[in-house]
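Box 4.2: Ligand-aware structure prediction
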Amino acid sequence: MKQLLVLAVLVALAFAGQKRYDGYQVYEVKAKDKLSFDVLIKLYHETANYDFWTEPRGLDRSIQIMVAPAHQQTFVELMQAFNIEYSVKFPDVQRLIDEGHKDINTTPILPKVHRSNSREARYSLNWTSYSDYPAILEFINELVAKYPNLMSVRTIGTTTEGNDILMVKISTGGNNKKSIVADAGIHAREWISPAFMTWLIHELVENYAAHPQYVDNLDWYLIPVLNPDGYRYTFAANGDRLWRKNRDPNPGSACIGTDLNRNYGYFWNTGGSSNLPCSDTYHGGAPWTEKESIAARDAILAITNGEVYVAMHSYSEDMLYPWGMTYDPAPNNAELDALGQAFVKAVKAVEGTPYISAQSSSGLYIASGCTDDWAMSTRAEGGPGIPYSYTLEMRPGPNGAAGFQLPANQIIPNNLELWEGFKLIADFVITGKLP
Ligand SMILES: [Zn+2]
């Protein structure tokens, strides 16, 4: 008992300097008509007072919005004035965050000399807790050292705070193979996204013998954490668990950070992003202003045979495809939908998690400057022309418990079901056929 108490005190001290969310509430709201939906969109992008935990999609689905104590009365009055259904989903956000502290990987990174004798625990990463960036880097370096014939890594950029952005390539060599391109951790607080990406790497490389076809017949280009400054900030003793953007200062503003997933240069700032540096969807002062978006752009443009692109996010259990910046369907809409539906069917088959696949703008919400639209844009338009492009929103579901603080005991179930989806994508890339 005493030891538990000591541990609890130590954990509390470790996060004592983090931004606190006492009295913050998350509301679940549902718009009834286009007018009230548009009110929500205005709140999303035209003030920085409301933190949308899930994206507004349409009238058929509720969304979760965090509101600070000082803005709660106004928020409730707005909901009532526009006849928007609302309820309190999480009455105390700080408690959610405190409960999540037990889900953080505290395994120390072992010096190499101690590891060489041990058959297990070569790296400190596990999938029963969430790991900070240094543990992810160590995991990648270990695997590259152990499987040099399957995996390589290169630095595609360095952030303002000096963190390297890495791209892992998993390949058995040869030319003219198609490839799957993916990035994770563009939004700092979405911890499940790198937790799946690292699992995917582990599965492809460490379990290669169980399914060599997925590496022999195609190449994988994977960015495990695209926004390492932001990601580290969500773990830092003086950081903020709910940080979303990168950590670059904005000239003329006290507010930090750009939403990298609004900063891409294909139809940049044409709706569904914010001009306000304090907003969580701030698109930056111009397209391609951020080191992270530039690094991803240049690295992905260098890949000539990309067939599928997946941007890994959380949460809402969706597999969304372009366009997001217009309600118009993409020219290959039927193909995008067919692969998306097959993916969610494979995922659902594991334990019934009700993923949905749809065009990003299939509801009422437009967003621009996002990675998935750019990934599908043509070389002539400045993109890589990857024909199949998706934004994957992982667990929890749209009404899911705990939001970004998905309990760590769900990491492995999340990863196992998504791995089935990625196997299906890989089979499709190899054979050109869906089951
Ligand atoms: Zn996201």
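In the box above, the bound molecule is zinc ion. The radius of gyration is 21 Å.
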